[in-house]
Amino acid sequence: MLNIIWIGFFLAAFCTALVKLLFFGDQQVFTLLMEAMFSLSKSAFEISLGLTGVLSLWLGIMRIGERSGFIQLLTQFLTPLFTKLMPDVPEGHPALGAIVMNISANMLGLDNAATPLGIKAMKELQTLNPHPETATNAQILFLVINTSGVTLFPVTILTYRAQLGAANPTDVFIPILIATYISTLVGLLAVAVVQKINLLDKVVMTYLVGFTVIVGGLLGYFTHLPQQEMLMQSALMSNVILFSLVITFICGAVYKKVNAYDAFIEGAKEGFQTAVTIIPYLVAMLVAIGVFRASGALDLLADGVRSIVHFFKMDDRFVDALPTALIKPFSGSGARAMMIDTMKTHGADSFAGRLSSIVQGSTETTFYVLAIYFGAVGIKHIRHAAACGIISDFGGIIAAIIVAYWFFG
């Protein structure tokens, strides 16, 4: 899918430029395309290089959290919920442990740990599958929760915002938390309707009500504040929560007698390697998006959407962030590059820059997760997995737009 998107950007740019040259006499358009290719490849390298320090910092901190046992704590906390949501999985089955550990790793932003745990969970669920080529209810529910992308610690997004000059990179933390919760809730409701899961079960309701009270409390608190005060309070709360997590991880390491410094260094090395590793991917996607924008194709697409928005007499500022939302279900790296492009073009603290960050943090890459997890166990008939995943994505995107207008509009 990423290959198709990447080629599509170049072909669309070429066709648009050719039409401009032949029919409108624009003799500069191909010059602009070549300038975009060179300037964006340089920008991609500079962004990746600048990410090294911040990425090393946060991956080092996350490694302390991992070593301190916070995945295990989250696992113990969430196990009763998933036991009820997946009645076809016997109590005590290894699949439950792997599922909860995967979701816990995702919540803490530990992508490198989450993916292998997710594949392990899918393989364990496959041992209970009477029809190995067809996805079971439990496998679909697990996949949709993954695609909704519950993240308590959106390290990558905050890192990119810092690198691209955001005055307060963490000001999107609370909006992302709200949007990703709504995305997960919508995905869970979609699956529950199809699979007839009893969400009124006492245990399930306890968890859902608890989570909703926390998010609802945030909503209620910010609703009564003037917008400027809301921004200040959101930024303060975000920074307090994030730094408190850092201190909690360190204190957990002390309690568990884990060498926090060594753990940090190990994670920081991984952060450095990650920053270097993403250079070719970032160059590929930013150059493709750059020529797509330089040709005028992106403007044509945005103007078409704006016309529809204006027809309904709606505010059109969200349109500039829509490319991130449209690409997100298909390609995580493509959406990340589009988010970066939006922040570079409009500014990290612009409405579009903040909204693209919230969209990026609100959901996961549905079709990538589908391909990886179902491909790992040879499932060909995915049933309602894709439909429920897209519904979850749509819920997250709508929530992101509403929350962005609320906080930054």
Give a verbal description of the structure.
With 409 residues, the chain is mainly alpha-helical. The chain has one domain (28-408). Helix content is 79%, strand content 0%. The longest helix has 39 residues, at 29-67. It is globular and about 70 Å long. The relative contact order is 0.16.
Give the overall form: globular
Which spans of ≥5 residues are poorly predicted at pLDDT below 50?
A: none
Assign a percent range to the helix content.
over 70%
Largest β sheet strand count, sense and barrel closure? none
In quaternary terms, these chains amount to single chain
Number of domains: 1
Strand proportion: under 5%
| String of helices and strands | HHHHHHHHHHHHHHHHH
pLDDT average, as an integer? 86
Based on secondary structure, the structural category is: mainly alpha
Q: Mind telling me the C-alpha Rg?
A: 22 Å
What's the total helix number? 17
End-to-end Cα distance, whole Å, is 34 Å
DSSP strand count: 0
